[in-house]
Amino acid sequence: MYNFDFVKPSTLDEAVAALGGEDAQPLSGGQTLLPSMKQRLNAPGVLVSLTGIAALKGVSMEGRLLVIGGATPHAVVAAEVASAYPALAALAGGIGDPAVRNRGTIGGSLANNDPSACYPSAALGSGATIVTNNREIAADDFFTGMFETALEPGEIITAVKFPVPEKAAYAKFQQPASRFALTGAYVAKYGDGVRVAITGASEGGVFRWTEAEEALSRSFTAEALNGLSLPEDGMMGDLHGTPAYRAHLCAVMTRRAVTAAR
Amino acid sequence: MPKDGGIGASTKRREDIRFLTGRGVYTDDLNLHGQTFAVFCRSTVAHGKIVSINTAATEAMPGVLAVFTGQDFKDVGGNPAGWLINSRDGTPMREPKRPVLAHGKVRHVGDAYAAVIAETYAQAKDAAEQLAADTVIDELPAIVDMKAAVADPSNRVHDEIPDNLCFDWGWIEDNRAAVDEVFKTAPHVTTLELVNNRLVPNAMEPRASIGEYFPGTGDYKLTTTSQNPHLTRLLIAAFVMGIPENKLQVVAPDVGGGFGSKIYHYGEEAVVLAAAKKLKRPVRWTAERSESFLSDAHGRDHVTKIELACEKDGTFLAFRTETLANVGAYLSNFSTATPTFLHGTLMAGPYKVPKVYVNVKTVFTNTAPVDAYRGAGRPEATFSLERVIDKMCRELGLDQFEVRRKNFITPDMYPYTTPVGLVYDTGNYHATLDKALEMTDLAGFEARAAEAKARGKLRGLGLSTWIEACGIAPSNLVGVLGSRVGLYDAATVRVNATGNISVMTGAHSHGQGHETVFAQIVAEKLGVDATSVEIVHGDTAKIPFGMGSYGSRSLAVCGSAIDRAMGKIIAKGKKIAAHMLEAAEGDIEFKDGTFSVAGTDKAKTFGEIAFSAYVPHNYPLETLEPGLEETAFYDPGNFTYPAGAYLCEVEVDPDTGKVQVVAFHCADDFGNIMNPMIVEGQVHGGVGQGIGQALCENTTYDENGQLTSASFMDYAMPRADDVPFYNVDYSCQTPCTHNPLGVKGCGEAGAIGSPPAVVNAVIDALHRGGYDHVTHIDMPVSPARVWAAMQKH
Ligand SMILES: Cc1cc2nc3c(=O)[nH]c(=O)nc-3n(C[C@H](O)[C@H](O)[C@H](O)COP(=O)(O)OP(=O)(O)OC[C@H]3O[C@@H](n4cnc5c(N)ncnc54)[C@H](O)[C@@H]3O)c2cc1C
To answer: Which fold has domain B16-22+488-634?
Structure first.
């Protein structure tokens, strides 16, 4: 790790100001950023901690929208949205291990947009809105590619608003080593249709499987997916799975999510 | 009634109190006055020519005290291979010198070519980064694949070795023609090509070393993560640095796991000693986890073709194998023994197969050195045998249990000389197989499989009947086989004046529980309370010259040395008692801690004898020396031969290919058992590692020699939910016939016996599910591989 300066503001305005400085970067749970700094792969000059800002933390309902503060740890989501949005709580409770869940945050996960991360599929699969310090971004516009998002430099995710579906589930097939999603499917059924978001599969990062959405909107059953498959072109291939295997898992995990949805 | 102390009791591990309360003292826990920090520059390319290393800018950096490069060590070094292996044509193996720091060329990613010593770790780290930037290395094509390495003489890991071959070994070469003859006429031949996957040992504690030099006396001290401090001292003294043995103290304090990887002497140890001498200050280094992945000696990595010739009824006629064994870029200390005498000699298994021939070509590649890892050679032998037997049973439609029974050596055949050079002293393989079947509830298997099927899972059952040679090792025998060291061990039993006992052992405990078990044995044999017995290990200044712990040798060899030393203590105690009780020595009996005159009530307690030994007021000094301390060296007469039967049940998810081990039954014969709880723990750990190898762990280099599984993000260690609740039995006991405790060793058993049981179970599950085109899947049998195998209709 290289030397860096550390600031821990207590308001969003202070954080935004601090991030205006040269080489500044937000630090949330640090579960992604700190390991990369330890390996000297990342060297911000100033770390601006977000976890001292009360307004960025916690869970609330705004009408039918579930609002989660950007610096809310996974463990809090797992515990506090269990009745409001059980599928999301289950996803949060399945990330990493207790230490990771107690530090890692939803804002950090979405900002990072790891192609194998869990949360991006929930945000995209729920049609969530990502709220930042200066705008609101629809999930459909937010994830722009592997480790890429619509965030501008210095822009902070302050909250994520989830429309609560009638039914939903996340089915994750664990990568054997990291236990991120080797491939995961998030399925959510709303009054006006079904959304299906796939993570861990595409070289472009999280994406919506529109054929599956159409089929499931007609009939929300695993059988409705029969015969549907995704092409292996553009799927990731690595030690843990070929593109063909991942394409196959997309269908398997989507079926499982449909079956598990509640 | 279970005992609550002494031999056979499940005494709780006394060392766990300090380990579990954070009071263990590991190398990195030591903070020394004036200490400095070493950081190594490691190659980022697999193969390259070192063009230049410009140290000027680095030396000028804040806090930098010294910079070392390969040039500084070019006249020392030569960390040797411990075994000389001859090729089939009689020529000795090729032995390229292993330098302390690479010079001329770097030969694997992670190969250290320079070291920077600085006042702080951060300064050393910054300086090493600078030095790397000021180093020019011309990348050469990497040699990664073993088949390509031996086929292409133009590209060489070591310039003087044209075909990248270390040796081409035949075992037993004289039997080759006869074995070939059997294959020509055999009624059935089963052939299997397989890979024994390379593993990274991943001890919980990374390697760490601290060098110290004392200018007043010229003494050196090395504190290091070693499984065998005396061996490390010998290597540094006699081969690498020329420090006199009596000027070098090597201490291995608490060590957090080794699994073989900490047997060997590594260059970092020499660097911290040389730097300590130069700076006259302590120099410390602790590996980062990434360094461990790149530079610890890896394990396994064999590519094997095995053939089994048999009758149509499954009676074995011969085994024949051809193996390419990867040694990596340099010869690590045991690397030449592992694929040969720890592998080829086991290729008869527990079977009365008349003919066996083993060929091993050991190959240099631009990868990390490969050496012994829990089981070392024997897992490779067992995997090849048990997989090919399983395949043969399927080909001929034979019952796997009956085929094993038909071919087992029977209890009336001992001592049994195998066609691969070992003499098994005792065993009962039918008994362990019967026991395992009883534990499994074989009759209920079909119902379990049907129930699994209702849940969409394919259930399978896999068997492995394994044997190993451990209790390493009889020096006479290994000397004939090429070992350059003896493999005896030593113990000193020191009875202190106040009657408590210090036992100095050559064994080294890095998780095994010696402090508990050895104390149990001493307490039982000397009739004293175990709490009055301390086990001292890991410091060359305190213990007699012993060879350390690996090869399931601690109890069988080091424990036997303790037993021998206790025998001498008792003999001496009788002399003292005879004097004190004014009786003839021959009339003194020793029982339950009391020396008495036979047939009388005249007696002295152990404590009284000890006190007298150190307060020898009217001793007849011509015939009786004061003191009560004895040392024994024990060299075993043979290997020990633990054996057993493992049955594994798995469920395969046909949608994803994921394998779950749902039951694992172990029936082992370890001879006499000293502490059942510790035996169970060793089996659990070994089987866990075996399941890890079978299902999870894989070390992969890409075609450029980059380690693509270089962190826990990609290297899958087995975790709690990857393993089942084990069912362990050790009631089948044929005590070892040649060591005083009748023990065989249990440390490696689980890692040796389990991988084929798991893979056989997966193949069984797939066949039962209709995927009978799948004849083999290489380890790790990962979800992706199982799924891919199922697709090929
Ligand atoms: C062992 C381990 C296992 C894991 N397993 C999983 C898993 O199974 N599934 C999974 O999805 N993830 C997993 N993770 C990742 C984990 O969820 C991280 O917490 C998450 O990816 C990043 O969140 P963080 O709060 O730690 O962010 P940080 O590491 O603090 O930051 C990550 C990045 O986001 C930026 N950032 C942080 N917060 C904000 C914000 N509010 N606005 C804008 N930018 C911001 C940072 O500048 C940085 O670039 C695992 C991590 C570890 C260490």
So the answer is: Aldehyde Oxidoreductase; domain 4 (3.30.365)
pLDDT tens-place string over residues B126-149 = 999 999 999 999 999 999 999 999
Is residue B355 within 8 A of residue B318, CB to CB? The reply is: yes
**How confident is the model at residue A53, as a pLDDT?**
98
CB B406 within 8 A of CB B313: yes
Among protein residues, the one whose CA lies closest to atom 39 of ligand 1:
A108
Contact state of B787 with A40 under an 8 Å Cβ cutoff: no
> Which spans in B527-644 are helix H?
560-581, 606-614
Calculate how far, in angstroms, residue A34's C-alpha sits from the geometric centre of ligand 1.
9
Q: What is the pLDDT of residues B486-534, one digit of tens each?
A: 999 999 999 999 999 999 999 999 999 999 999 999 999 999 999 999 9
Of A178, A182, A239, the CB nearest to B698: A239
Q: What are phi and psi of B445, to 5 degrees?
A: -65, -45
Enter the CATH code of domain B302-472+638-791.
Answer: 3.30.365.10
Task: Establish whether domains B16-22+488-634 and B302-472+638-791 are of one fold.
Answer: yes
Q: Which residues from chain B sit within 8 angstroms of residue A244, using beta carbons?
A: 788
Question: Which residues of chain B fall below pLDDT 50?
Answer: none
Question: Domain extents for chain B?
Answer: 16-22+488-634, 32-140+204-257+262-295, 302-472+638-791
Check residue B742 and give its pLDDT. 98
Instruction: Determine the CATH number of domain B32-140+204-257+262-295.
Output: 3.90.1170.50
Q: Which of B130, B628, B641 is nearest to B348 (CA)?
A: B641
Domains of chain A: 5-49 (3.30.43.10), 54-163 (3.30.465.10), 167-261 (3.30.390.50)
The reported pLDDT for the residue numbered B268 is: 98
Among the listed residues B373, B198, B203, the one whose alpha carbon sits nearest the alpha carbon of residue B289: B203
A38-68 as b/e, with b when 16 or more CB fall inside 10 Å? Answer: eeeebebebbbbbbbbeebbebeeeeeebbb
Closest Cα in chain A to B790:
A245
d(CA B277, CA A110): 52
Confirm or reject: Cβ of A204 under 6 Å from ligand 1: no
Cβ contact, residue pair B784, A40, below 8 Å = no
Indicate yes or no: pTM above 0.95.
yes
A174-216 confidence digits (pLDDT tens): 999 999 999 999 999 999 999 999 999 999 999 999 999 999 9
pLDDT given for residue B1 in this prediction: 57
Task: Provide the shortest C-alpha distance from residue B533 to chain A (in Å).
Answer: 41
